[in-house]
Amino acid sequence: MKTLLPISLAALALLATCRPTRPETTQKPITTIAFGSCSDQKRPQPLWDDIVSQKPDVWVWLGDNIYGDSENLDTLRAKYDRQKANPVYQQLRQSTKIIGVWDDHDYGVNDGGKEYPKRKESQQLMLDFMDVPGNDPLRKQEGAYSAHTYGPKGQRVKVILLDGRYFRDPLKKEGKSNVPDPSGDMLGETQWRWLENQLTNSDADVHVIGCGIQFLPEEHVYEKWANFPTSRQRFLDLLAKTKPKGALLLSGDRHIAEVSKVTVPGLGYDLFDITSSGLTHVSKAHEEPNKHRVGEMVAQLNYGLISIDWTPKPTVTVRINGDNQATYLTQKIGF
């Protein structure tokens, strides 16, 4: 097991405020995107050196980027600072474009939605963590959704990150289990309109759409888009309507990794949801139903890695990787 050298509180504070110099990634084609979720700032973080060694063009946070779980902004800020000051994560910040969105624990409350009272203030702390400039339009936007475009025309990737917290209706429960609520909404109308605009007539050749919450699985009792089946169907219908080239879904939250696949009528290719969750802790090995699953479920510390081969046409290979260069799942995707 890897160990990190001790670091003083003063050094933590200094590192957390250092702003890295980022490479320009908007015009040259990108070939490698790494992603992950569920990083507890208090726990050992053995995967960062593996991730750095992959030399990704972009790192995508998919939520639970810290375990904040508080309405106290000073508490949330201190936990972000501790995560941000991890010395090996600092190496990633220096070499790679960092983008992301939150899930519930970094948002501030477990399983929380629009009822969380500190959502506006928490959003600013998340943007601080992502090094979003103070004059960026995201600072004035309600909700943490965003879009990022990389590469020249013909080799262009658009990463669309959806906020499944800020506008989401409260979960409907029976006992401790979540149950479907057809009347509930995930995104809110403003974000739905924005998403449709991002997808309509997009000139990107690959569209990576991320959210902290799993898009495709329907059977487990935990958080998922299927808890709001009307929203889930609306999302799939929107893809069929707008027909973006090469859409691929990314999700986190679950403390497992898995690949899910569905066929969306009218889309023209299979739609995959790649779940990578557990940068610092995972669920115990167990069986869990998922009629859309491709391959095995992984209950090991993991991160995701997307490799894009641009010739002769875009082909994507997604891997679920672990510590010491382990690879647990490999999925090749053609569009």
Which helices and strands appear, and what pairs or packs with what?
Elements: H1 9-17, E1 32-36, H2 48-53, E2 58-62, H3 73-84, H4 87-95, E3 97-101, H5 104-107, H6 119-129, E4 146-150, E5 157-161, E6 172-174, E7 177-179, H7 189-199, E8 206-210, H8 229-242, E9 247-251, E10 257-263, E11 270-276, E12 293-298, E13 303-309, E14 315-321, E15 327-334
Parallel strand pairs: 1-2, 2-3, 5-8, 8-9, 9-11
Antiparallel strand pairs: 1-13, 4-5, 6-7, 10-11, 10-12, 13-14, 14-15
Give the strand line-up of the largest sheet: 4-5-8-9-11-10-12
Characterize the largest beta sheet: strand count, sense, and whether it forms a barrel: 7 strands, mixed
Indicate the proportion of strand residues.
15-25%
Order of helices and strands: HEHEHHEHHEEEEHEHEEEEEEE
Helix content: 10-25%
How would the global form be characterised? Answer: globular
The first-to-last residue Cα distance is: 39 Å
Q: Helical stretch count?
A: 8
| Helix-and-strand structural type | alpha/beta
Structure in a nutshell:
The protein is globular. Strand 13 and strand 14 form a beta hairpin.
Describe this structure in words.
The protein is of the alpha/beta class. Helices cover 23% and strands 25% of the residues. It has helices spanning 9-17, 48-53, 73-84, 87-95, 104-107, 119-129, 189-199, 229-242; strands at residues 32-36, 58-62, 97-101, 146-150, 157-161, 172-174, 177-179, 206-210, 247-251, 257-263, 270-276, 293-298, 303-309, 315-321, 327-334. The strands form three sheets. Strands 4-5-8-9-11-10-12 form a seven-stranded mixed beta sheet, with no helix packed on it. Helix 1 crosses helix 3 (73-84). The longest helix has 14 residues, at 229-242. Residues 1-25 have low confidence and may be disordered.
